[in-house]
Amino acid sequence: MKIEMCESLVASWLKHVKGCTVVQTNWKPSPNWVEHNLADIERLVQEGKQFFGQLDIFKKNADATQILHQTECDVVGLLAMDWSWHAVESAFHTNGVQYGKNKHESAAKIAGKLFRAAIGLHCYMDVRKGSICFAAPKVTHSYEEVLRPAFDMVAGFFRQQGFEFDFRLLINRDFQREIMEPMLPLVAEVSDTAELFLRAVQLEVVSGMPQKGGNRSGESGNANGTGESDVKATKIGNLVKTVVRAILEGLENDSEVEDLMSAEYSKEAFGLNFPLLVKAGETFDKRRYYAEPLVICGVSYHLCNDWYARNRAALEAWIAQHEADQEDCAF
Q1: d(CA 139, CA 145)
Q2: Are 291 and 71 in contact (CB under 8 A)?
Q3: pLDDT score of 54 more than 80
Q4: Residue 281 contacts residue 265 (beta carbons within 8 Å)
Q5: In whole angstroms, what is the distance from residue 262 CA to residue 20 CA?
Q6: pTM, rounded to two decimals
Q7: Measuring CA to CA, which residue among 215, 234, 310 is closest to residue 270?
Q8: Which of 50, 79, 135, 273 has a 20 to 30 Å separation from 208 between CA atoms?
Q9: HEC profile for 182-241?
Protein backbone atom coordinates (compact mmCIF):
# COMPACT_ATOMS: atom_id res chain seq x y z
CA MET A 1 0.00 0.00 0.00
CA LYS A 2 1.46 3.32 -1.08
CA ILE A 3 1.62 6.08 1.54
CA GLU A 4 2.63 9.58 0.49
CA MET A 5 4.99 11.51 2.76
CA CYS A 6 2.46 14.30 3.25
CA GLU A 7 -0.16 11.73 4.30
CA SER A 8 2.32 10.30 6.81
CA LEU A 9 2.92 13.79 8.21
CA VAL A 10 -0.82 14.45 8.51
CA ALA A 11 -1.41 11.07 10.18
CA SER A 12 1.30 11.82 12.75
CA TRP A 13 -0.16 15.30 13.25
CA LEU A 14 -3.65 13.91 13.93
CA LYS A 15 -2.21 11.40 16.39
CA HIS A 16 0.31 13.48 18.32
CA VAL A 17 -0.94 17.06 17.97
CA LYS A 18 -4.73 16.74 17.61
CA GLY A 19 -4.89 13.75 19.99
CA CYS A 20 -6.70 11.24 17.77
CA THR A 21 -6.47 7.77 19.30
CA VAL A 22 -7.35 6.04 16.02
CA VAL A 23 -5.84 7.16 12.70
CA GLN A 24 -6.24 5.52 9.29
CA THR A 25 -4.45 6.51 6.07
CA ASN A 26 -5.92 5.77 2.64
CA TRP A 27 -9.36 5.35 4.19
CA LYS A 28 -12.00 3.66 2.03
CA PRO A 29 -15.44 2.34 3.04
CA SER A 30 -16.26 -1.34 3.15
CA PRO A 31 -19.23 -2.62 1.11
CA ASN A 32 -20.31 -4.48 4.26
CA TRP A 33 -20.71 -1.38 6.43
CA VAL A 34 -24.13 -0.09 7.44
CA GLU A 35 -25.02 3.00 5.43
CA HIS A 36 -26.93 5.74 7.22
CA ASN A 37 -28.88 8.75 5.92
CA LEU A 38 -29.01 7.57 2.30
CA ALA A 39 -32.11 9.61 1.42
CA ASP A 40 -30.48 12.70 2.91
CA ILE A 41 -27.27 12.07 0.97
CA GLU A 42 -29.19 11.60 -2.28
CA ARG A 43 -30.80 14.97 -1.65
CA LEU A 44 -27.44 16.59 -0.90
CA VAL A 45 -25.98 15.30 -4.16
CA GLN A 46 -28.92 16.47 -6.24
CA GLU A 47 -28.99 19.90 -4.62
CA GLY A 48 -25.21 20.05 -4.84
CA LYS A 49 -25.33 19.63 -8.62
CA GLN A 50 -27.51 22.72 -8.80
CA PHE A 51 -25.58 24.66 -6.16
CA PHE A 52 -22.10 24.19 -7.62
CA GLY A 53 -23.18 24.72 -11.21
CA GLN A 54 -20.15 25.10 -13.49
CA LEU A 55 -17.81 23.99 -10.70
CA ASP A 56 -18.11 20.37 -11.83
CA ILE A 57 -17.21 18.53 -8.64
CA PHE A 58 -18.98 15.27 -9.52
CA LYS A 59 -17.54 14.64 -13.00
CA LYS A 60 -18.89 11.37 -14.47
CA ASN A 61 -20.58 10.20 -11.26
CA ALA A 62 -24.30 9.96 -11.89
CA ASP A 63 -25.85 9.28 -8.49
CA ALA A 64 -25.24 9.38 -4.76
CA THR A 65 -24.62 5.63 -4.47
CA GLN A 66 -21.79 5.73 -7.01
CA ILE A 67 -20.26 8.78 -5.36
CA LEU A 68 -20.42 7.14 -1.93
CA HIS A 69 -18.83 3.90 -3.08
CA GLN A 70 -15.97 5.83 -4.70
CA THR A 71 -15.41 7.91 -1.58
CA GLU A 72 -11.95 7.74 -0.07
CA CYS A 73 -9.92 10.02 2.17
CA ASP A 74 -6.17 10.43 2.62
CA VAL A 75 -6.33 10.38 6.43
CA VAL A 76 -9.19 9.88 8.90
CA GLY A 77 -8.84 10.19 12.66
CA LEU A 78 -11.11 9.68 15.66
CA LEU A 79 -10.72 11.70 18.86
CA ALA A 80 -12.01 9.33 21.55
CA MET A 81 -12.48 11.91 24.29
CA ASP A 82 -15.47 13.44 22.50
CA TRP A 83 -15.94 10.95 19.62
CA SER A 84 -15.25 13.61 17.02
CA TRP A 85 -14.07 12.72 13.52
CA HIS A 86 -11.29 14.34 11.51
CA ALA A 87 -11.00 13.86 7.74
CA VAL A 88 -7.99 15.31 5.91
CA GLU A 89 -7.23 15.46 2.21
CA SER A 90 -3.57 16.30 1.63
CA ALA A 91 -1.38 17.10 -1.36
CA PHE A 92 2.32 17.69 -1.82
CA HIS A 93 3.44 18.77 -5.29
CA THR A 94 6.85 20.47 -5.37
CA ASN A 95 5.68 23.11 -7.85
CA GLY A 96 2.30 23.66 -6.23
CA VAL A 97 -0.94 21.67 -6.24
CA GLN A 98 -1.79 20.48 -9.76
CA TYR A 99 -4.64 17.98 -9.60
CA GLY A 100 -6.24 18.80 -12.92
CA LYS A 101 -5.28 20.09 -16.32
CA ASN A 102 -5.61 23.69 -15.11
CA LYS A 103 -6.25 25.64 -11.93
CA HIS A 104 -10.05 25.56 -12.30
CA GLU A 105 -10.11 21.78 -12.69
CA SER A 106 -7.75 21.44 -9.71
CA ALA A 107 -10.08 23.55 -7.55
CA ALA A 108 -13.09 21.48 -8.66
CA LYS A 109 -11.32 18.20 -7.83
CA ILE A 110 -10.35 19.42 -4.37
CA ALA A 111 -13.88 20.69 -3.73
CA GLY A 112 -15.20 17.29 -4.82
CA LYS A 113 -12.87 15.50 -2.42
CA LEU A 114 -14.10 17.65 0.48
CA PHE A 115 -17.74 17.11 -0.49
CA ARG A 116 -17.24 13.33 -0.57
CA ALA A 117 -15.43 13.43 2.77
CA ALA A 118 -18.44 15.18 4.30
CA ILE A 119 -21.05 12.78 2.96
CA GLY A 120 -18.74 9.87 3.83
CA LEU A 121 -18.71 10.93 7.49
CA HIS A 122 -22.47 11.49 7.35
CA CYS A 123 -23.10 8.06 5.84
CA TYR A 124 -20.60 5.73 7.52
CA MET A 125 -20.04 7.47 10.86
CA ASP A 126 -23.62 8.80 11.09
CA VAL A 127 -22.51 12.30 12.13
CA ARG A 128 -23.35 15.85 11.07
CA LYS A 129 -20.29 17.51 12.53
CA GLY A 130 -16.54 17.02 12.59
CA SER A 131 -13.38 18.49 11.10
CA ILE A 132 -12.75 18.35 7.34
CA CYS A 133 -9.49 19.76 6.08
CA PHE A 134 -7.47 20.22 2.92
CA ALA A 135 -3.75 20.48 3.70
CA ALA A 136 -0.92 21.32 1.30
CA PRO A 137 2.47 22.91 1.96
CA LYS A 138 2.58 24.73 -1.37
CA VAL A 139 -0.18 26.25 -3.48
CA THR A 140 0.78 28.91 -6.02
CA HIS A 141 -0.93 32.29 -5.89
CA SER A 142 -2.94 31.83 -9.09
CA TYR A 143 -4.20 28.42 -7.94
CA GLU A 144 -5.05 29.75 -4.49
CA GLU A 145 -7.17 32.48 -6.09
CA VAL A 146 -9.55 29.87 -7.51
CA LEU A 147 -9.17 27.28 -4.72
CA ARG A 148 -10.37 29.52 -1.89
CA PRO A 149 -13.73 30.42 -3.50
CA ALA A 150 -14.33 26.73 -4.35
CA PHE A 151 -13.46 25.74 -0.77
CA ASP A 152 -15.81 28.42 0.59
CA MET A 153 -18.61 27.10 -1.63
CA VAL A 154 -18.32 23.61 -0.12
CA ALA A 155 -18.23 24.98 3.43
CA GLY A 156 -21.16 27.30 2.70
CA PHE A 157 -23.24 24.53 1.13
CA PHE A 158 -23.04 22.25 4.15
CA ARG A 159 -23.59 25.16 6.52
CA GLN A 160 -26.79 26.05 4.64
CA GLN A 161 -27.86 22.41 4.94
CA GLY A 162 -27.62 22.59 8.73
CA PHE A 163 -24.37 20.64 9.17
CA GLU A 164 -21.72 21.64 11.70
CA PHE A 165 -18.62 20.49 9.85
CA ASP A 166 -15.57 22.64 10.52
CA PHE A 167 -13.97 23.05 7.09
CA ARG A 168 -10.34 24.17 7.20
CA LEU A 169 -7.94 25.13 4.42
CA LEU A 170 -4.37 24.68 5.67
CA ILE A 171 -2.06 25.72 2.86
CA ASN A 172 1.26 27.55 2.56
CA ARG A 173 1.94 29.53 5.75
CA ASP A 174 -1.06 28.00 7.58
CA PHE A 175 0.29 24.52 6.80
CA GLN A 176 3.68 25.53 8.17
CA ARG A 177 2.26 27.13 11.30
CA GLU A 178 -0.43 24.62 12.24
CA ILE A 179 1.06 21.32 11.06
CA MET A 180 4.82 21.50 10.53
CA GLU A 181 5.82 23.69 13.46
CA PRO A 182 3.93 21.67 16.12
CA MET A 183 5.31 18.41 14.69
CA LEU A 184 9.03 19.13 14.50
CA PRO A 185 9.59 19.34 18.30
CA LEU A 186 8.18 15.79 18.55
CA VAL A 187 10.87 14.24 16.35
CA ALA A 188 13.02 13.17 19.30
CA GLU A 189 10.04 11.84 21.27
CA VAL A 190 8.44 9.45 18.77
CA SER A 191 10.14 6.15 17.96
CA ASP A 192 7.43 4.43 15.92
CA THR A 193 9.07 3.16 12.72
CA ALA A 194 5.70 3.20 10.96
CA GLU A 195 5.60 7.01 11.05
CA LEU A 196 7.52 7.67 7.86
CA PHE A 197 7.70 11.43 8.02
CA LEU A 198 9.14 11.51 11.52
CA ARG A 199 11.59 8.74 10.66
CA ALA A 200 12.75 10.69 7.62
CA VAL A 201 13.42 13.76 9.75
CA GLN A 202 15.19 11.61 12.33
CA LEU A 203 17.39 10.14 9.60
CA GLU A 204 18.41 13.60 8.45
CA VAL A 205 19.21 14.64 12.01
CA VAL A 206 21.21 11.48 12.75
CA SER A 207 23.17 11.53 9.48
CA GLY A 208 24.09 15.19 9.82
CA MET A 209 25.20 15.16 6.18
CA PRO A 210 25.37 18.53 4.44
CA GLN A 211 23.65 18.86 1.09
CA LYS A 212 25.82 18.70 -1.97
CA GLY A 213 26.93 21.96 -3.47
CA GLY A 214 27.00 22.80 -7.12
CA ASN A 215 24.74 24.51 -9.55
CA ARG A 216 21.23 24.26 -8.07
CA SER A 217 19.45 26.00 -10.89
CA GLY A 218 20.01 23.29 -13.47
CA GLU A 219 21.92 25.66 -15.76
CA SER A 220 25.03 24.70 -17.71
CA GLY A 221 28.03 23.57 -15.70
CA ASN A 222 30.49 25.79 -17.60
CA ALA A 223 30.64 28.60 -20.11
CA ASN A 224 30.45 26.21 -23.04
CA GLY A 225 27.34 24.50 -21.68
CA THR A 226 28.88 21.03 -21.49
CA GLY A 227 28.21 20.24 -17.82
CA GLU A 228 26.11 17.42 -16.35
CA SER A 229 23.04 19.65 -16.16
CA ASP A 230 23.11 20.05 -19.93
CA VAL A 231 22.87 16.29 -20.29
CA LYS A 232 19.78 16.38 -18.09
CA ALA A 233 18.45 19.31 -20.07
CA THR A 234 18.87 17.32 -23.27
CA LYS A 235 16.89 14.46 -21.77
CA ILE A 236 14.11 16.75 -20.70
CA GLY A 237 14.13 18.22 -24.19
CA ASN A 238 13.48 14.80 -25.66
CA LEU A 239 10.66 14.33 -23.16
CA VAL A 240 9.09 17.60 -24.25
CA LYS A 241 9.41 16.82 -27.95
CA THR A 242 7.81 13.38 -27.63
CA VAL A 243 5.56 12.83 -24.60
CA VAL A 244 4.50 16.42 -23.97
CA ARG A 245 3.88 17.05 -27.66
CA ALA A 246 1.65 13.97 -27.87
CA ILE A 247 -0.37 15.04 -24.82
CA LEU A 248 -0.80 18.57 -26.14
CA GLU A 249 -1.99 17.39 -29.54
CA GLY A 250 -4.68 15.37 -27.77
CA LEU A 251 -6.01 18.26 -25.67
CA GLU A 252 -9.66 19.21 -26.01
CA ASN A 253 -9.74 21.75 -23.17
CA ASP A 254 -9.65 25.33 -24.47
CA SER A 255 -9.10 26.76 -20.98
CA GLU A 256 -5.98 24.66 -20.49
CA VAL A 257 -4.57 25.80 -23.83
CA GLU A 258 -5.16 29.40 -22.74
CA ASP A 259 -3.31 28.71 -19.49
CA LEU A 260 -0.38 27.20 -21.37
CA MET A 261 -0.15 30.36 -23.48
CA SER A 262 0.15 32.44 -20.30
CA ALA A 263 3.64 33.45 -19.16
CA GLU A 264 2.45 33.65 -15.54
CA TYR A 265 0.89 30.19 -15.58
CA SER A 266 3.88 28.64 -17.35
CA LYS A 267 6.18 30.16 -14.73
CA GLU A 268 4.12 28.89 -11.80
CA ALA A 269 3.33 25.47 -13.23
CA PHE A 270 6.68 24.58 -14.82
CA GLY A 271 9.20 27.25 -13.78
CA LEU A 272 9.51 28.37 -17.42
CA ASN A 273 10.69 31.83 -18.40
CA PHE A 274 8.40 31.85 -21.45
CA PRO A 275 4.86 30.66 -22.24
CA LEU A 276 4.79 26.94 -22.95
CA LEU A 277 2.76 27.57 -26.12
CA VAL A 278 2.57 30.40 -28.65
CA LYS A 279 0.33 30.59 -31.69
CA ALA A 280 2.02 30.02 -35.01
CA GLY A 281 2.17 33.21 -37.07
CA GLU A 282 2.31 35.53 -34.08
CA THR A 283 5.39 37.46 -32.96
CA PHE A 284 7.59 35.54 -30.50
CA ASP A 285 11.25 34.80 -29.79
CA LYS A 286 11.91 32.00 -32.26
CA ARG A 287 15.09 31.01 -30.42
CA ARG A 288 12.95 29.82 -27.48
CA TYR A 289 10.55 27.62 -29.45
CA TYR A 290 10.78 24.50 -31.60
CA ALA A 291 10.45 25.28 -35.29
CA GLU A 292 8.10 22.39 -36.06
CA PRO A 293 4.54 23.39 -35.14
CA LEU A 294 1.99 21.18 -33.42
CA VAL A 295 -1.75 21.26 -33.92
CA ILE A 296 -4.31 21.44 -31.10
CA CYS A 297 -7.99 21.44 -32.05
CA GLY A 298 -7.12 22.59 -35.56
CA VAL A 299 -4.90 25.50 -34.45
CA SER A 300 -1.11 25.53 -34.97
CA TYR A 301 1.21 26.37 -32.06
CA HIS A 302 4.91 26.32 -31.28
CA LEU A 303 6.25 24.58 -28.17
CA CYS A 304 8.79 26.17 -25.84
CA ASN A 305 12.29 24.64 -26.00
CA ASP A 306 13.78 26.50 -23.01
CA TRP A 307 13.85 23.61 -20.51
CA TYR A 308 16.39 22.77 -17.80
CA ALA A 309 16.87 20.12 -15.16
CA ARG A 310 15.20 22.37 -12.59
CA ASN A 311 11.94 22.11 -14.58
CA ARG A 312 11.86 18.32 -14.64
CA ALA A 313 9.90 17.58 -11.44
CA ALA A 314 7.07 19.93 -12.39
CA LEU A 315 6.99 18.62 -15.95
CA GLU A 316 6.85 14.98 -14.84
CA ALA A 317 4.04 15.82 -12.41
CA TRP A 318 2.09 17.45 -15.26
CA ILE A 319 2.67 14.44 -17.50
CA ALA A 320 1.63 12.01 -14.76
CA GLN A 321 -1.58 13.96 -14.14
CA HIS A 322 -2.55 13.91 -17.82
CA GLU A 323 -1.73 10.22 -18.18
CA ALA A 324 -3.90 9.51 -15.11
CA ASP A 325 -6.74 11.55 -16.61
CA GLN A 326 -6.48 9.56 -19.82
CA GLU A 327 -6.69 6.31 -17.85
CA ASP A 328 -9.78 7.61 -16.03
CA CYS A 329 -11.43 8.42 -19.35
CA ALA A 330 -10.81 4.86 -20.54
CA PHE A 331 -13.23 3.46 -17.96
Answers
A1: 10
A2: no
A3: no
A4: no
A5: 44
A6: 0.65
A7: 310
A8: 135
A9: HHHHHCCCCCCCCCHHHHHHHHHHHHCCCCCCCCCCCCCCCCCCCCHHHHHHHHHHHHHH
Sorted by sequence, the CB contacts under 8 Å of residue 63 that are 6+ apart come out as 42, 45
Measured CA to CA in angstroms, residue 199 lies from 15, 76, 103, 191, 288 at distances of 15, 21, 33, 8, 44
Burial environment of residue 32 by CB neighbours within 10 A (0 to 12, 13 to 18, 19 or more): exposed
| Residue 243 DSSP class | I
Tell me which range, 46-50, 58-62, 73-77, 267-271, is most confidently predicted by mean pLDDT: 73-77
State pLDDT tens for residues 237-257.
888 988 899 999 988 777 789
Residues 231 and 34: their CA atoms lie apart, in Å, by 57
Q: How many CB atoms lie within 10 A of CB 288?
A: 15
Residue 328, helix vs strand vs coil: helix
Residues 267-312 pLDDT 10s: 988 889 999 999 999 999 999 999 999 999 999 999 999 998 888 8
What pLDDT shows up at residue 229?
41
Residues in the chain: 331
Percent of the chain having pLDDT more than 90? Answer: 49
109 and 151 Cβ atoms separated by less than 8 Å: no
Cα radius of gyration rounded to whole Å, the chain = 22
